[in-house]
Design goal:
- The structure is a single chain.
- Helix content is 75%, strand content 0%.
- By secondary structure, the chain is mostly helical.
- α4 packs parallel to α6.
- It starts with a helix and ends with a helix.
- The relative contact order is 0.21.
């Protein structure tokens, strides 16, 4: 097995494991690219393949666990569209002005800040915002989701923080973050197509897709099953340690 193949196995595993848990998939992929490819630019071809694999894994998980019932789809499809509008607007602005701000230092800080917010939202029992209207809750979570444009912050983490603040338990906060991920991952997948001219399916691309798919499905299955028991503290500790290691490395 070549060094290139090993890299893309790690790439797929990293994307699949981190996409749906609150530790930031984009931040981890950026770290891989920076250290092993010596670049702070994004590989849109492999990133798009990984996102597509993650999306398929998510849809398969939700279908297998009966989240695609007619009543559930009817209850959430419009809400998810409204909740995605803030990210669409902000993403359009970033694309229009060609904003590129990926850096190890930023990932270090956002990892720590996101960890603190996740811990506070999970542990604070008083002063929660009890929002009964589901549309309002998801739309507000959509604004939180925009924090994921910061590399290292975590899309899943930002949504979970919002839903925990709004009074949902750990499991439902995590499930709602999965729902929020469907349109966002779709948009990310389609928006990246125009960033590359040729689409060639080679061995490395296949490795990324296969490892991402299986890692994502396994991770989300285990994560939803155990999150009410283990809580978010392990992810908080991991994020703080990762952020500190990065910042100490750069100092």
């Amino acid at each position: 097995m070549t060094d290139s193949s090993i890299f893309y196995i790690f790439y797929g595993l990293m994307q699949g494991i981190t996409e749906f848990i609150p530790i930031s998939s984009s931040g981890h992929l950026n770290i891989l690219e920076i250290f092993f490819k010596s670049t702070e630019s994004r590989n849109y071809l492999y990133e798009t393949s990984a996102h597509f694999a993650s999306l398929l894994a998510l849809l398969l998980y939700l279908f297998a666990n009966k989240h695609f019932s007619k009543s559930n789809i009817k209850a959430y499809w419009k809400i998810l569209i409204y909740a995605t509008i803030p990210a669409i607007i902000l993403g359009f602005i970033f694309k229009f002005y060609d904003v590129n701000y990926v850096s190890l230092e930023l990932i270090g800080y956002t990892s720590i800040i996101g960890a603190i917010l996740l811990y506070v939202s999970d542990k604070t029992k008083k002063n929660r915002l009890k929002i009964k209207n589901k549309s309002t809750k998801f739309i507000l979570a959509g604004f939180f989701q925009c924090l994921a444009f910061l590399p290292g912050f975590s899309r899943a983490g930002s949504c979970i923080i919002a839903f925990r603040i709004f009074g949902d338990d750990r499991k439902y906060s995590s499930i709602y973050s999965l729902y929020m991920g469907i349109p966002i991952i779709c948009l990310s997948f389609f928006s990246n197509f125009k960033e590359f001219e040729n689409f060639i399916v080679d061995k490395n691309l296949s490795i990324v897709f296969i490892t991402t798919f299986f890692a994502a499905y396994f991770t989300v299955s285990v994560f939803i099953k155990v999150i009410n028991k283990i809580g978010f503290t392990p992810f908080v500790v991991y994020r703080i340690l990762l952020g500190l290691i990065i910042l100490i490395y750069l100092s």
